[in-house]
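So, read this over?
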Amino acid sequence: MRHTKIVATLGPACSQPDTLRALLNGGVDIVRLNFSHGSHESHARSYAAVRDAAEATGRTVAVMQDLSGPKIRTGPLEGGQPVTLAPGQTLRIAAGDKPGNSEVVYTPYEPLIRSVSRGDRLLLDDGRIELRVEELRHDEIVTSVVAGGSLGQKKGINAPGVGLPASAVTEKDAADLRFGLHLGVDLVALSFVQTADDVQRAIDIMRDAGRSVPLIAKIERPAAVSNIDAILGVAQGVMVARGDLGLEVPLEQVPRMQKHIIRRARAAGLPSILATQVLESMRVDPRPTRAEVSDAANAVDEGADAIMLAGETAVGAHPARAVETLDAIIRDAETMPPSERVVPEMDPARSPHGRAVCEAAVTLAATARAGAIVAVTREGHTARMLAALRPTTQVFAVTPSAGVVGATAMLWGVTPILTTTEDINEIERLLSERHLVSSGSVVVFVNISAELNRLDANFINVQRFQ
């Protein structure tokens, strides 16, 4: 069994039904809908296609909505054609959305003009072009080109070390979030989080919309790294988004920050996703580089709950092969014991007995060499606690809630199963019929609840399957 989950981004390269089914059969656990691109109509079609493919393949697959956030971009260019920027030339960046040229480009993000200082660096188009701020004017920045090249329209702007006032939830994000919740997404990723308040605002929007799903905070700015523990106090997981993070901080700091974020998430008992350029060369090539293979394997050793493919599946030449390759890398990496054991800290918001019950279930499963641990769960708390404890025994999260099925799909080592019963004998029959547990195997059933007055909660039951 593979414990670490695989996230794949949907895009033009895998939009056809046969390719989408190939991705799911290759091992995808979560499909990502990137709301930085496309319309509500196109995402609705993609969502339906994922659900159809999951039904056709018999796979339980979650859908994650990734909100675009306050991404700073340049505006359009005259004639829609790229411009060439030469080192040493002057380029002005002005507030607005007018068509630009080789002398001036516009950005709709006006706070950038107020936030930078003379001498600051600006990186355009994922760092391919570097500018230095030379002069500040009322409504524009005068820069000199340090590293030039061809600049297309609507490219990203990063301002390393510059404090930006924007909330992580834009008006577009709020509208997209409400749409995604209505559509039925299982998880939501929030871009450019800087503080716990950013996460709370998205949670408040979900509450007002009448439906809440786990919210994953994308860590891609230095402020978020500094505030990681506070963010983990309100989010339900984090994503190490190395793309923008690698532009906001010196590149040599990214591996250290990656380890720190994953460790803090594990200590909090929350899942983490590693993202960006995992198998980047497979956008074009049928095989990844050795360094990319090592990078993915190291993420497994560090304890990431999931690894995400972006352009590899969205626009790559070999989307299904990229998934199959990552699946093989993870499986081999998981044959080695982790180099470090992280003990999750006690969550003060929950009763300590829940952790004690789950620890007992994990110990019992290891001692009895159980074939599976079955979390009988209504809200997913039992499954989340078991995943945080990292048992070597396979975990099944059996639940009557379709929402819990989607929410637990990203948890390390947890396979969610939708059922209408909480009766242990009926669950045993279901697992046997689906050939998930073999005859004669020992199975540990467990449930935790904050309510100590319920007779049907907080139990461990050991059965040998007939």
About this structure: The chain has three domains: 5-69+167-333, 78-158, 353-464.
